[in-house]
Records
---
Amino acid sequence: MPSSPLAFSARRRLLLTGVAGALAGSLDLTFKLPAAAASPPDLVVYDAPAARTLLAVCRTLFPHDALGDAPYMECVRAIDAAAADAGFRASIDAALARLPADFAAADQAVRERALSVLRDTPAFGALRGAAGKLYRNPAVWPHFDYPGPSLAFGGWVDRKMLDLEWLPAETLQLSEVTSS
Amino acid sequence: MSARFDLNDDSVVVVIGSGAGGGTLSAALTAAGVDVVCLEAGGQVAIEQDLPTMYGRVKWADTRLSEGDLNPALPVFIAKAVGGTSIVWGGVALRIQPHEFAARTNYGEVAGAALADWPMSYAEMDPWYAQAEQRLGVTGTHGNPFLPDHNNATLLKLGARELGYTQVSNGHMAINAADRDGRPACRQFGFCAGGCVIGAKWSSLHAELPKARASGRFELRERAMAVAIEHDDAGRASGVVYVDADGKRQRQRARVVCLAANGIETPRLLLLSASGRFPKGLANGSGLVGHHYMTDLLGRAIAIMPGRVDNYRGTTYSSLVADDMRHDPARGFVGGYLFVPRGIHLPTYVNEPRADGWGAEYAEVMEAYTNMASAALIGEDLPVYDNRITLDGETLDQYGNPVPVIHKRYHDNDRALVAHGLERAADIYRALGATQVFTRASNVAIHNLGTCRLSKDPADGVCNAYGATHEVPNLFVSDGSQFVTSGAAPPTLTIAALALRQADHIVSQLRAGTI
Ligand SMILES: Cc1cc2nc3c(=O)[nH]c(=O)nc-3n(C[C@H](O)[C@H](O)[C@H](O)COP(=O)(O)OP(=O)(O)OC[C@H]3O[C@@H](n4cnc5c(N)ncnc54)[C@H](O)[C@@H]3O)c2cc1C
Ligand code: SF4
C-alpha cells in the first residue's frame, strides 16, 4: 500500500516527463486562426510593454504554437479587467517585476524557468486561471477538434458515439457483452 | 397551479431546500394531500449548454471556510438554485449495499472512525429503493432500458474486462433512455453536469417540483433563505424565519418542519437555531449536529489513448464497474469503491490531468484532448467524529449569520482506498495501450453526508430511523445529513428513497395526530 496516496505530485511529475515525445506526430497542428484576428489591445490598466509581458506569460503557461495571439489577448483582457482591483493589481505587478526584462523575447524553455520562480505565489494561480480560460474560447475549439455544444444539431444520439477503430479487433469483440 | 399560503398558517409543512431531498419530499407529501411551503435560498435558473457559465450561475457562493484537506478556495461544490444540486448531478443512481447498512458489524472497530450500523436494515429499505428507482426511472431497473454505449464508457468497460473484472455493465442512471414520466429520452448532448436542457435527466427541477406544483397544494418561495427554526414552549418546531428576495425577514408558521438544505447548511441551520431550551443548537442534545461529516471519496483517472475517444459525446457518466464495491479487508482497507466513466469538455479539461499543470509539456496533454479517456472513482468515506461543520466565531454571511467552517481530514483508510482504486484505474487504461495516465484524488466535495446522523439511541445520533430529530418530534432532516455511513455508491438514490419513506411516515403521523 503506497504511503501517501492523496498526494500524487511526485508521481504526476514523472508521468509528465516525455509527454512531448510520445504525442508529437499523432496530432494535426495545421489549423491556424486568421492573422487578422490579432487586434491591438484595448486595455484599461496595463500599458503596451506590460501587455506584451502578460501575453508572453499566457503563451508560456499554455503554449500552442498553431494559435495566433488573438485568443491569448482575450486572457490578457481578463487580467486587465481584474486588475481594476488595486490589491489584485499589486500582486500581479509584484510578480511581473520578478521576471527578467527580456522575458517576452526569450524562448519557451527560458520563460518557463523564469515563471517557475513564481510558482508558489498567489499571483501565479491567478495568472494560470486567466490563461486557462483560453480553452473556453470557441475560437480555439477547432484547433483541438472540440465541437462544443451539440444542442444545435440535436445531440449525439443519432450520430456515431462508438467508433474505436484503433482498438484491436479481439478487444472490441468484448464490447458485445457490455449490457448486463 | 401554485398555491399560496398565509405566513400565519400553522397547518403547513415547511420544507427548507428544493433539491433532490426537498423536491422529492414535497412532491410525495403534496400527492398525499398535505399542504407544503418550500423555502429555497436560490432562484430559478435557465439551463444552457455552457459548462463554465452554468456553474457560475448555480453555484453556492456564500462564504464558508475550510479547515483540513479540502480545497480552501472551493471546499464544496453545491448549487443554490431552484432544484438545488440535482440540476447538475450526474445521474448515477445506485443503492447502498446490504452489508454497508451494518458497517460497524461487518467492518468491526476501525481506530479513529466512528462507525455505526444504520438503525434500519437493507431489507427495510428495499421497497423504498424500488419505489425511488421507479420514480427516477433508473436505467437497467424495473424494465427501464439501458443507455447506449459511447467510446468513453466502452473503453472503461473493455479495460476492466481485460483485467478480469466481471461486474461491468451499462450502469444504473436516473436518465431517461426512453420517453417516460412526461420527460423525453436523452439526446446524448453530453452536458449533463451543466444541467439537462430537455429534462431527460431526473432532477428535482424537472421531475419533482412540477409534480408538487400540479397538486395545487405547493408554494415554492424562491430566494428565501431560512435563517432560524423556532420552537414553542413545548419544544416543538413552530415556524421558520427566513430572509426573502427583498432582504426582509419573514416568519412562516408550521406544523412540521423538514430540513433538506444539503449536508452543510442543514446542520448549520440547527446550530444557528440555538435557544435557551436548546443551548447547543436545536435538536443537538447529543452534541453530534455537524459531526461525522462525510464526502464520499472521489478520484479521477485521465488517460491519453493511442486513438481518438472524443469523450465529449454522450452522457457525462453512464456504465459502471462494480467489482470493487465489495468489502474485502485483504485489500488493506474497509469498504469499497466503484468506477464510472466521466466525460470532460475542453473548457474544463485544463484542470483535469493536473490541477496546476502548465508549460510546454502540459500543452501537449491539452493537444491530446480528443484522445483522452476518463473515469471517476467513488468510494466509501469513513465517519470521523472531528470531521464536522461548525460556526465561525468571526466571519458573518450576507444575512448576518456566522459562516460555516468545514473540517475534513482524510482517515488512513480513505487514503488507502483511493490509492488502491487509482492504481487499478491506471491499470485499466494501460491494458488498452494508454500512453499517459494521470490519477489524483479530488479535494472538492460534491456529496455532504452524515452531519445529523440517524441512530436508535438518541446519544449516538441526531435523528431516528425516519429522520425525525430525537428531541423535536415535528422537526425532520430530509437530506444526506441523515447518512450513518456513506457506502460506496453516490448518495442521491438513497436520499430520494429516504424522502419517500419519510413522507409516508409524516403522512401517517399527521393522520394519527401525533405531530
Ligand atoms: C457535479 C456533481 C455531480 C453529482 N453527481 C451525482 C451522481 O451522479 N449521483 C449521485 O447520487 N449524486 C451526485 N451528486 C450529488 C447530488 O447532487 C446530491 O446528492 C443531491 O443533490 C443532494 O440533495 P439535497 O436535497 O440534499 O441537496 P441539494 O440538491 O443541494 O438541495 C439543497 C437546496 O437547499 C437550498 N438551501 C440551502 N440552505 C438553505 C436555507 N438556509 N434556506 C433555504 N434554502 C436553502 C439550496 O439552495 C439547495 O437548492 C453530484 C453532485 C455534483 C455537484
Ligand atoms: S446527455 Fe442526456 S441526460 Fe445528459 S444533458 Fe444531455 S440529454 Fe440530458
---
Amino acid sequence: MARRLRLDRRAFLLGTAAGGGLLLGLHLPLETRAEATPGAGPRPGHKTPFAPNAWIRIEPDGDIAFIVARSEMGQGVMTALPMLLAEELDLGLDQIRVRFAPVAPAYANRLLGRQATGGSTSVRDAWTKLRAAGALTRRLLVQAAAARWGVEADACSVHRGEVIHPGGDRRLGYGELAGAAARMPPPVSVSLKAPEAWTLIGTPAPRLDAPDKVTGRARFGIDVRLTDMVVASIERCPVPGGKVQSFDAAAAEAIPGVKRVLAVAAGVAVVAADTHAALAGRRALRVQWDLGPHAETSSAGIRAQFERRFADSGVSVRREGDPDAAWSAAARTLEAVYEVPFQAHACMEPMNCTADVRADGCDIYVPTQAQSRCQHTAMAITGLSAQQVRVHTTFLGGGFGRRGEQDFVRDAVSLSKALGRPVQVIWTREDDIRHDFYRPAGLHRLRGGLDLDGMPVLWKHHIVCPSILARVRPAAVADGIDRTAVEGAVNLPYSIANIALACSLEHTPVPVGFWRAVGSSQNTWVTECFLDELAAAGGQDPLALRRGLLADAPRHLGVLNLAAERAGWDTPSGAGRHRGIAVAASYGSYVAQVAEVSVSAGQVRVHRVVCAVDCGLVVNPDIVIAQMESCIAFGLTATLKSAITVSQGRVQQGNFDDFPLLRMSDMPEISVHILPSNAAPGGVGEPGLPPIAPAVCNAVLAATGTPVRSLPIRLEAAPPQRPAPQADRS
Amino acid sequence: MIDLTVNQARRELDLPGDTPLLWALRDRLGLTGTKFGCGIGSCGACIVHLDGDPVNACMTSLSAAAGKSVTTIEGLNDDIALALRSAWISEQVPQCGYCQPGQIMAAAALLARHPRPTDAQITAAMDRVLCRCGTYNRVRRAIHRAASPTLEAT
Ligand code: FES
Ligand code: FES
C-alpha cells in the first residue's frame, strides 16, 4: 500500500520559491578562496535550479544534485541517503550528483537534535523525511508536465528522470520541467511508494563514493589546499589539564619554512609553509610545561579509584524482584570482576581542520561529524554570526565518534583568526593517540545466582566508569545516571527473576568520549561473558541457555538462531577450534555472532565469525554487510590487540607500534546473514560491534575453561594483578 | 635541487634532501592521493612505487628518490591498475576510503610480481597496510578477482 503523508509546510516547502528559503545556505554572497573541494559553492553560470526542499536541486539543463546532510565516514550515507530520494523520484543513482550540505536548520538530525552524524541514526532520521522530499518533488514535476500537456497528473507516470504522458508517447525530462515545477502550488500531502514498488531500496546499489576512493581523487580534510594557506601543528601538554610555562622557539624558527611559533589555547603552535616544516619545527621546539594537578595519574591508580566505589551500592538503574534475598537463597552463586581499559579511536586520517577566518566571514573545511557544533565553535571564537560561518564537510577518513569533537576545529579557527590567513592544522598520529577522548575505562562487578537446575535466578551488575555525558551534556546526568554508561547492560534481554543494575560515575583526569557503539561496546562484553560463566557453572550450553531466557525477546532470538544455524553450532567444530556466541541489541538493531577461535601458546586466533543481523527494513544490503564486517574488525582490535594505559599522567601509547590495529593477517573469515524484516530501519554503523568481544571471549572460555575478564585478551599476563575476583561460594 | 620522475613527468624539487617523499608529493606537487597515517612506516597509507617497488613515502627521503621513478595512486594507470580498480568497485571495497590508495598501490606491486597470488602471498604483501574500517576481506577478494585469467590474457 502506498502511504499518504501530510506535509509539514515549514519542513518541506520553504524552498519552493526557487533559490529562496532553505537553500539560502548554499547561496551566501560571500566569496570563498580558490579551493578544490568539490561540492562547495554554487555552480557558476547556471540558472536558478528547481529546489523544492533542502535535499534536491534540479537544474534546467537536467543536472540533478542531491544534498547529503550527513557525514560520509565509511558507513555509506553518501549512497544510502540518495537511494531514499532517488527511489521516490524514479531516478537511477547514475543520474545524480551528490553534494555535502552546509549548516542549516533544515538539516538537523531529529534523533540528535542538531546537524550531526552519530549514534547510527542517519537512515533512521532520514527514512520518512527523505522519501517524502523525493515524493513531493516527483509530484510537482508530474503536475508541471500534466499542466503542459493538459492531462490529469495522476494519469502520468515517471521513469528514470522523465515524466511520461498517459499515452506513453511523450516524455519530458525533469530538467525541462524544473522552471514550471518551481511555480506549481505545493500539494498538502504526497504518497510514498509501496514497498512492493521499490526498485532501489533493498538493492545492493554500488557506493557512489567508490570511484573517487579508488583513484585517489576523494578529498579528505587533510587534502584541502587553499590559496595562501599555511600549515600548523600544535605541541600539546602531555598531561591533560597542564599549561605552557615557557617555550624556546629559536631552534624551531630556524627550520626553513617555519613562519611563526606561538602559544595557543591548546599548547604551542608551529606555523609553517608546509607540513614537513611544521612537523620539523615541532621536533625542534622546547616547551616547559606546568603539568597541572594530574601528573600522577596512572591506570593502576584509576583502577583502585574505581574499585573503591564497589564499597557503596551505586545509583540503582534497574531493579526487578528481590535481588538481595535471591543472593542468599540461590543454590549457587558466582561473582566476577570485569575490567575494560581506555580505548583510542585511531581514525586512519589523523585529526585536522582548515579554517579561513576573515573580518566578514569564516569558512571551515573539515572532516566533522558535527556541523552545528563546528559553526558554534567558530562563532564563539570569531564573534561572527551563523550566516557568516560556513562549514564545508569533506570526506572523513574514519569518524567512530571522535570527529564529533571540537578540539581540532578550535585549533584551526583560533589560529586562522590570530594569523589572518587560512590555516590547516594537522595532528600527528602521536597527537591523535595521546590526545583523544577515549572510550571510558571501567570496572564491573557481577554477581549471579543459579537455582538447583542451573538456571539463573539472580543477576547483579555494578558498573563503575567515568561519564561521557558529564562533559558533553551535563544536564543529562542530573540523576547520577549516564545512559551511555549503562546502555548494553540496562537492556539485558534475559528473563531472570531478580535483577539489579547499579552504576557509579567516577571522574578521572583522562578525557572520555563516544567510541563506536559507546556503552554497548563494553557493557555487552561484560554481560554476555558473565552469562557464559553462569552457563558453565550451571552445566548449560550457552546457546540453549540463551534460548531459554529469550522466550520474550523474539528479535534477539531470531538473530541468535540464525547465527547458530549458519555457524553449525550443533556440529563439532574442527580440531582445536572452539566456538563462542553472543547477542545484543543496540541502535534499533539486533545482532548475534558466533566466533570460532583456537588458542595455542597463549595466543588467540579468531578464524571465523558468523554474524546475523536484524536491522529492520534494509536500504542497501551490501552496505549492511560491509558495516558488520567493519564493526567486527574494529571490535577485534579492542578485543585482541590494543589498550590505552596511563602513567605519570601521560598516555603511554603513541602510534601503531604500541597501539596496534588489526591487520589482514589477523582478520577472520566473516559471513553476514541478514534476517528479513519489515520493522522500521535500525542503525547499522555500530550494532555489529557489541557482540564480537564476548563471542570471542566466550570461545576462549570454551577453549581454556578460564573466563576472560579483562581486555585486550592477555592469556598469561592477566591473573596476578587481580585480587581473587572469583568468590565461588558453591 | 633534486631530480626525480613522478608519474612519468620529470620534476625538479628545491627541497632539503631529508624531506620525506610523502610531504614533497602532498604539499609541493599537490598529489594528495598519497596519505599520511602514521609517519613511522607502520600503516602503509603512504605507499608509492619507487622504481616499481612499494615503499612507504613517509620513510623515504627525497634524496633516496633522486634520479628514480615514483608512481603515486594518481599515476597508476597500467593494465594491472585498471583491473584492480574495477575489481575494487565490483567487491565494493572502500569504506571511509582513507587507506585505499595505499591498499591499491600495495596490491598493484603484488600483482606485478605475482600475477596469480596465493592467499599467503596476498597476506604477506598486504599486511603492511592498515584499514581501521576493516575492509581486509574485500581487499583480498578484489585482488583475487583482479588476478583472474582475463587479466593475464590482456
Ligand atoms: S604514513 Fe607512511 S606508513 Fe604510515
Ligand atoms: S577504508 Fe577506512 S581505513 Fe580503510
